[in-house]
Amino acid sequence: MFDKLKQLGDLKKMRDQALQIQKQLAQEQIIVEEGDIRVVISGDQRLLEFSVKGHSSDVAIDVLNKAIKQSQELAAKKLQEMSGGLGGLLGGGGQGS
């Protein structure tokens, strides 16, 4: 019984650490500029800016963020299947939008 409680405590600690890392990543920004294209993305993979020749489109940014989120959800699902459900306990796919 104590072993199971310790495992749950360890899982909570790992999940808390993962959430803290996720918050830190959200504060980071990666900027890539090539030619007339500029992309700014957060460390947690949310597209913040996308412009071509200085022109941006909020609609394009929304659509790209939806595509990124769907790819993250697919990856989380595959990892969860591989780990026998452990990903769900650790908050797999729990990206805020």
UniProtKB/TrEMBL annotation:
Signal peptide: none annotated. InterPro entries: YbaB-like_sf, YbaB/EbfC. Pfam families: YbaB_DNA_bd. It comes from the Bacteria. One of its GO terms (molecular function) is DNA binding. This is Nucleoid-associated protein, YbaB/EbfC family. The lineage of its organism: Bacteria, Candidatus Chisholmiibacteriota.
